[in-house]
Structures are given as structure tokens and as C-alpha cells.
Amino acid sequence: MIILKGTNIGIQANGRWLYQAVNFQLEQQHILALLGENGVGKTTLIQTMMGERTLDQGSLTWEQAGLQIAYVPQYRNDVNQFPLTITEYVKLNFDTGWQPWLTQGEQAWLKQVLAATALTELAHQRIDQASGGERQRAYLAQALVKKPDVLILDEATANLDAAAKFQFMDVLQQYQKKHTLSIIMVSHDAEIVDRYADDYLLIQHHQGRFGHYQHQTQHPLLAEVENV
Amino acid sequence: MFSYSFMQQAWLVGTLIAIVAASMGVFVVAKQMAFFGHVLSEIGFAGAAFGLFMGWSPLWGMLFFTLASALGIGQLNQIEQQKEASISAVSAVAIGLGVAFLALSGKSSSAATGILFGSIFSLSWSNVWQVVLLAGIVLFILLGLYRPLRHLAFDAQTAKYNVKHVVLLESIFLMLMATTVAVSAQVVGSLLIFILLILPASAALQWGRTVVSMLCWAILFALLGVWGGLLLAYWSNLPVSFFIALIEAGIYFVSLQVKAASF
């Protein structure tokens, strides 16, 4: 089942085309890797998905109404300034309703999310003292609090060591097995894309190339991206 | 000393304002809007002087000016560029206006001192009820909007995608801030708003690890300052705001030292 369809997409920056005529689709339960050099306009495309800006050409169509979309941005404010505990940081996303405290249902869901992201043991640790991997999992947990149908990750595994980045992706994959979740993932990491992506959209030379990811055979594709 | 009605009033108003300013302060500091809080207090000074000039209560003049400028600066913030510079310009004009209105009103300089440094021992019961009402409104709205405001203050990057009606929420927050500044100026004066709005919250952010615990610490620190200040002022006949400033600054610096040492 198709969740999101991009047709003939074009985006401009400062009056010149970043790319034109890009087509892609996101299927349910798939991981779509969004590839391309820095500055090619990947984050801009994500911003249009989040409704932050409009397309200069073409259309983005969500195939169902009322989908919950969660976004894990690449950069965060300095979490060191007033360090919250990991639980508290995750809880920030319970941001609807009048009641200041969490309901029983929310408490239970919070517990599940922390367990699913391997954070139960670290729940009361300060987020500024957490490792890079733990912090990324906390950001992920925060996004999952909303029970999203679609998750957009912007370079979530950049700056993580090998162990941490595979743990992050395994946590994500395990969660995806148990819940309805389609993922769009911006990444530069060949190993990650090779191991986890179902589909890819490569933006290069002002064009987009979309396809089903052929594991093992498609390293040249990644090599093109890796060179940057 | 509680047999004096001015002392009862001071205690009631001081306690309420400590709670409101400290709670708002946690969000203001987390949103890194302390500087804006300071500018609002200068605008409040102009407003209070305007109130005197018009023959209103200074509180209403202050509220009028701070609310109007909170909304105006909220619009400026949407444009974002040169934010600091434009806020400084607004602040300069505000102080100038304040001086002008004071001169025009023909009031004695004690009126100016009252506005700038607070006049908690010379409140009327109608002042008291105004403060109770306004403080109650701020606390009520803050409690009702606790969840979205918490997200916005402590993780703005994701909040702007997740929280609905962010612009409306920001405007409401600015109005709450304006009201808090106007009300708090009754105790500590418009020049010293920082000592109840920013210092207890900044110290609390060193200690608390959840938003609720930060709120509790901030309220505790603010109450210590206000109660201590009232007692010392009663005994010594020196201004309350002087003691509150000393106590709050002391708590803040001790918090910084203790936390720096614990790393």
C-alpha cells in the first residue's frame, strides 16, 4: 500500500532549480532511504513533507488522510543547558490535552516506548550525560510517543560509532515489526542503507532516481554518495 | 507584625507573585527569553508612568503597555532579523517615554521610585484584589496550557512540527509574560523584575531534572526571597526589593557553584 506519492517534484532555492521532475513513493512498512550529497536539497524535500514550505513544481500526495507524521530533526538545541532526565525529555511530546499530569494510558505507553528503545535502564539518567547513541534513541522515543504512521529521520545515525548506529537501527526495525510504521531516512551511511533500506531516492545532478534497493548489488550507487 | 493590614497585604501579594513569577520564569528561561523579560519591564515602567499621567492605577497602565508591546514584538519576532537591535530600540524608547510621562504627570519623585523599585508596603485592598485576580488568571492559563508550553519551551525544534497552533501559543505566552511582569512590578518594581522572574528559575534549572521539579525549586527559591525580604525589610526599614535581590542572587550563585563543583 502506498502512503506517500511524489509526482514530478521540483524545488527551487534562490531562483535556481535544485532538482526537477523527481518521482518517488513511500510504501507502508518500508524504509525509504533519501540519498544525495550535502546541499542537494534533501532537508528541503523533508520540509515540504512536513508542510513547512511549498513545492515549486509537482505534487506530494498523502494517500490517506489524518496520518500522524513524526520528524526527528538533524540538529537539536543544546540539551546541556538545562539537563532533563531521558524520561522527561521523551515525555515532552505528550503535548496535547489540558491535564498537566499523564493519564494511566499515557504512562503505560511511555513505559512501552522506553522499553522498545532500550532506554528503560537509563530512564532517570540525565540526557546530557547520555552517550550519542542513547541520546539518538531518546530522540527516537520522543517521536514514537505520538504513535506515528510515518517517521522521518534526518541523519539519525550520523556521528554514531558502528555499535551505536546498528543498535539504533535494530531498535527501529524491531519496533517497525510490531507497529504500522513507514520510514523515510536521510542517510550518508552506506552500511546502514545497504542493510536496512527497502527503497531509495537518490538526488543527484538536479535529478532524482527512485527504485527498489537491490542489496549487495547496489554498492556503486552508494559509492557515488559516499564520495562526498 | 501580622496585625498590621499593610503587612498582611504585602505577605499575600508577595506570596502570590513569587509563585506566578517563578513558574513563568521557568518557561521564560528555558525559551531563552530573559532579555525580552527585561525589556518588558522597561516598557512596564513607561506604562506605569503613563497610568499616573492619565490618572489610572499604575498597574493598569503597565498592563496596557506590556500587553500591547508583547503582541507587537511577537509580530517583530516573526520577522526575526535584527531581533536584538530592534528590541533594544524599543527598550530605549520605553524608558524615554516613562521619563516623559512622569514629568508630564507632575507627580512627586516618590511615585517614580515606587514604580521603579516596588511599593509592596503601600498597597490598597483594591490593588491586592487586582493582583490576586491577574495572578490567578496567569496560573490558570499556565496550568491549562502546561503540556504544549512545556514542549515549546524545552524542545522548540520538534515542537514547531508537533504542537498545533504554535503562533497562537507563542502569542498567549507573550501575553502571560506581559501580565506577569506587570503584576510582579508591584512587589519588586519594574527595574528589578529579573530577581523574581529570572533568578529563581535560573537557579532551579540547575537543580531540577524534570519540569515539575524545576517549577517546585523555582517557587521555593522565589518564596524564600520574598518572605525573607519582607521580614528583613520589616525589621530593618530598608527596601524589600534590596533584600529580595540579595537573597535571589545569592541562591543563584550558590546553585551555580554547587553544580559546577559537582561535575
Automatic annotation (TrEMBL), chain A:
Protein name stated in the entry: ABC transporter domain-containing protein
- What InterPro entries does this protein's entry cite? AAA+_ATPase, ABC_transporter-like_ATP-bd, Metal_Ion_Import_ABC, P-loop_NTPase
Which stretches make up the ABC transporter domain? 4-226
User: What's one GO MF term for it?
Assistant: ATP hydrolysis activity
Q: Which PROSITE patterns match?
A: ABC_TRANSPORTER_2
Task: Give the family this protein belongs to, as stated in its UniProt record.
Answer: Belongs to the ABC transporter superfamily.
Keyword annotations: ATP-binding, Nucleotide-binding, Transport
Q: Which Pfam families match?
A: ABC_tran
Top-level lineage group: Bacteria
